[in-house]
Amino acid sequence: ISYSADKGWHDAKITPRRPLSIDPASTVLHYGQEIFEGMKAYREKDGHVATFRPEANASRFTASARRMGMAELPEDLFVQAVDELVRVDQDWVPSGEGQSLYLRPFMISNEVFLGVKPATEYLFIVIACPVGAYFSSGCVSVWVSEHYTRAAIGGTGEAKCGGNYAGSLIAQAEARDKGCDQVLFLDARERRFVEEMGGMNVMFVRKDGKIVTPPLGGTILRGITRNSLIQLAADQGIEMVEEPVDIDELFSGAASGKYTEAFACGTAAVLSPIGKFVRPTGEAVFGDGKTPGPVSQQLKKTLTDVQGGRTNDVHGWIHRIS
Ligand code: PMP
């Protein structure tokens, strides 16, 4: 779907995937006006195809567009565009545990203009690809990035824009070099409080039974999985608190048994238990570092049962497409 200031949103079409033709002076190539979403279409237990809370993705997309000075796509059009693509591609929606059709709605500025100001022409596109589980079962290991940060106050941390990822890829590469699967970012001001991971939010289980997750302060992505888990935990009588997590306290708390589990959550990762955090001065290990803890396992099952249509959709999160 194209946008121009004079015509508004127009020219919606579904075509086989093909290369885009982009003018070398397109603004996105120079100033990075690009935002995206990550969603999944699931094959439900009864064979129907559904997405999970697409209105939440549409609303975050609007917030990202606003932050980046981009045209706002009406949210019903966002949902309709995703629905129509999934309907066309429905035979590609796999069934089975951890399987889904990954959906990537995104928008770029494609005005041919080198001036430094928000563009007046945009292109909204959705592409799709079948995927399996992001991590194999077991626990992931996470490198604590003490050098790189992902988002500054007043910056674009809360927007889902490509630029945030461009700046954090090197930290992810560093984590791999250190033998870890993922990276954890700390706050940019003090390098003291846990923020989030490269493509996931993070949560911790305490011995007192509460789950703690860092509060959204404008520098963390408003994860839809995070929000869903907060509600699902409440349904089960588990108290979830949004409060700052000090990295030193996390390391000492893992050693003393104050923190018993940790896990990452996001559309791609669903809920991935974390076995250990690693930094130059030592490790914070949960359990034996390999076996997912009981709270993580239980919440993962609750979430995937809702997404896979195996349980009652009490919150109305399942958006059936076919
Ligand atoms: N944080 C970051 C940086 C992400 O890229 C993602 C994935 N979109 C998340 C958190 C989790 O968000 P969601 O649950 O909406 O996928």
Automatic annotation (TrEMBL):
EC number: 2.6.1.42
Alphabetized UniProt keyword annotations: Amino-acid biosynthesis, Aminotransferase, Branched-chain amino acid biosynthesis, Pyridoxal phosphate, Transferase
GO terms classed as biological process: isoleucine biosynthetic process; L-leucine biosynthetic process; L-valine biosynthetic process
Family: Belongs to the class-IV pyridoxal-phosphate-dependent aminotransferase family.
Pfam families: Aminotran_4
General function of this protein: Acts on leucine, isoleucine and valine.
Record protein name field: Probable branched-chain-amino-acid aminotransferase
Originating organism: Gluconobacter aidae
Reported cofactor(s): pyridoxal 5'-phosphate
InterPro entries xrefs: Aminotrans_IV, Aminotransferase-like, B_amino_transII, BCAT-like_C, BCAT-like_N, BCAT_family
One function term, GO molecular function aspect: branched-chain-amino-acid transaminase activity
Keyword Amino-acid biosynthesis: yes
This protein's record includes keyword DNA repair: no
Pathway the protein takes part in: Amino-acid biosynthesis; L-leucine biosynthesis; L-leucine from 3-methyl-2-oxobutanoate: step 4/4; Amino-acid biosynthesis; L-valine biosynthesis; L-valine from pyruvate: step 4/4; Amino-acid biosynthesis; L-isoleucine biosynthesis; L-isoleucine from 2-oxobutanoate: step 4/4
Class of this enzyme: transferase
Ranges that cross the membrane: none
Modified-residue entries (N6-(pyridoxal phosphate)lysine), positions: 160
Chemical reaction(s) catalysed: L-isoleucine + 2-oxoglutarate = (S)-3-methyl-2-oxopentanoate + L-glutamate; L-leucine + 2-oxoglutarate = 4-methyl-2-oxopentanoate + L-glutamate; L-valine + 2-oxoglutarate = 3-methyl-2-oxobutanoate + L-glutamate
